[in-house]
Amino acid sequence: MKITVVGTGYVGLVTGTCFAETGNDVTCVDIDASKVNKLSSGQITIYEPGLEKLFERNLKEGRLSFTTSLEDGIREAEVIFLALPTPPGADGSADLSFVLNVAAHLGKIMTGYKVIVDKSTVPVGTAEKVTAAIAQNCKIPFDVVSNPEFLREGVAVDDFMKPDRVVIGTMSERARKVMGELYAPFVRQGNPILFMDEKSAELTKYAANSFLATKISFMNEIAILCEKLGADVDMVRRGIGSDDRIGKRFLFPGIGYGGSCFPKDVQALVKSSEDADYEFKILNAVMDVNEKQKLFLLPKIKAFFENNLNGKHFALWGLAFKPNTDDIREAPALYIIDALVAEGATVTVFDPEAMPNVKHVLGDKITYADHQYACLDNADALIIATEWSVFRTPDFHKISASLKNKAIFDGRNLFEVSRMKELGYHYESVGRIPAML
Ligand code: UDX
């Protein structure tokens, strides 16, 4: 099938590459000429495990190409995916101007029937708006479909190639047939393609992310309660997770969710609810809990240093909002750094992928280490903010040889408390009884 993907950001590039991988002919369109040049010459613009290999192969074999011209890009396309940014506006609702501008332009240049697919996460009612934006300039028949993505950063290729489900929102039989054919290779193991109306598809995406964010905030509150009552959140997590109705996944407490999706989508659903004259009480609490959770470790750190962080120096492992990505959007580490610096402390950081992005934002406010152990030199304590695999079984002798105090504040519960006790560490984590020096 001939496909166009408009927008070569994270979602667009993964979508385009994965559709090329199943033999489709994919053209990606972006207004950013330097990005298009880079991509055309084989330089990938995002970090996503497994993507580069597919990108290079499909580019080489001619199934994947890039252009800045929307008109050239869509000429032969049967399906056009809109994977454009929908940043939160000042009031928290998604800004649709990129999507609607492209839709209006498409209306002017389309020459035959096309299926236009909203791939970006967009509020309920957007398919209607996109339809209207195209129709104002266009007499040719077309269908607009809502097909939300459920990609997790770090495993996006796998999520795309083997989705738990594919949600397709359209009442048009013609569009359902086209979309069903396009996705057939991805659901051969038997996972469902769920056809529904546009609005239900749009809401499904927000409901899924908001539900997952709720699970996390719920567990973060259980962790707080565990500490107060002397229980262990790992036990409680296992105890509840083995009930199929609850499920084992997404029950890990930590220092809050971040990234480009959860914070934005929860906020947008709260806003959509308000617009529909309904106060979504649970989600307001989810956001509130998450904001506070980002600084969960701070009182513990302050208590250890007798409420005076002035002149203290900290090593911080992990900057990305989660492992296997260089994404630092809403990353808890950044909030911790700000708070430490505001208290007069200095910070040296290490992250396997995200340091260039942090340098861009924080510059010389902090120092950057080339290695996770070099990060520890002269530090008063180690703070862990992201659960990268390389942090999971560190050389504890190296750590204690460098740190001034044998103190680790772990926002991701990487180590067994009993082991840390044996090693003689002051070890504080989330929702577990600490090992005290
Ligand atoms: C998420 C959704 O999973 C995905 O379906 C959607 O399309 C986009 O948003 P992503 O933001 O890439 O994907 O990350 P995810 O792996 O879901 O983690 C989100 C956040 O939740 C991270 O900050 C992570 O640290 C946190 N988290 C996750 C927890 O704190 N505890 C958990 O048990 C799971």
TrEMBL record:
The UDP-glucose/GDP-mannose dehydrogenase C-terminal domain is annotated at 315-417
Q: Where does substrate bind?
A: 150-153, 205, 250-254, 258, 322
Q: In which pathway does it act?
A: Nucleotide-sugar biosynthesis; UDP-alpha-D-glucuronate biosynthesis; UDP-alpha-D-glucuronate from UDP-alpha-D-glucose: step 1/1
Q: What is this protein called?
A: UDP-glucose 6-dehydrogenase
Q: Name the InterPro entries on file.
A: 6-PGluconate_DH-like_C_sf, NAD(P)-bd_dom_sf, UDP-Glc/GDP-Man, UDP-Glc/GDP-Man_DH_C, UDP-Glc/GDP-Man_DH_C_sf, UDP-Glc/GDP-Man_DH_dimer, UDP-Glc/GDP-Man_DH_N, UDPglc_DH_bac
Name the catalytic site residues: 261 (nucleophile)
Please give the family membership noted in the entry: Belongs to the UDP-glucose/GDP-mannose dehydrogenase family.
Catalytic activity entry: UDP-alpha-D-glucose + 2 NAD(+) + H2O = UDP-alpha-D-glucuronate + 2 NADH + 3 H(+)
**Any idea which UniProt keywords this protein has?**
NAD, Oxidoreductase
For this UniProt entry, which segments traverse the membrane? none
**Recorded superkingdom:** Bacteria
Q: Name one Pfam family in it.
A: UDPG_MGDP_dh
Lineage of the native species? Bacteria, Pseudomonadati, Bacteroidota, Chitinophagia, Chitinophagales
Q: Where does NAD(+) bind?
A: 30, 35, 86, 121, 153, 264, 329
> By its UniProt entry, which SUPFAM superfamilies does this protein fall under?
6-phosphogluconate dehydrogenase C-terminal domain-like (SSF48179), NAD(P)-binding Rossmann-fold domains (SSF51735), UDP-glucose/GDP-mannose dehydrogenase C-terminal domain (SSF52413)
Q: Which Gene3D superfamilies match?
A: Cytochrome c1, transmembrane anchor, C-terminal (1.20.5.100), NAD(P)-binding Rossmann-like Domain (3.40.50.720)
Say if the entry is tagged with keyword NAD: yes
- An example molecular function term from Gene Ontology annotations: NAD binding
**What does the record give as EC number?**
1.1.1.22
Q: What class of enzyme is it?
A: oxidoreductase
* One record GO biological process: polysaccharide biosynthetic process
